[in-house]
Amino acid sequence: MIVDPFAEHQDTLLSGARAMVLVTPDDDIDLAVQPRALYFADAGTVAVHMLNENGVSALVAVPVRSFQTLDIRPTRVLETGTDVTVFALW
Length: 90
Description:
mainly beta, four-stranded antiparallel beta sheet
């Protein structure tokens, strides 16, 4: 059994991810769970919806590199404008 010296510590947004799941970009459906970050397997562009402090959604398109992690918390990853493989991190 693996030893986790951090098992007794509470996770925060600054903690390392404990899970990673492939995201299927969709123009109409929000992510089931808002991630703490996104990871990209290849270079290209990702288009996401982000909520501001007033709950207003904004479209953001970001160029990304291979094996890059973005510390953003989108509510949706759009199919239109996304040409990379995206993973959500929790």
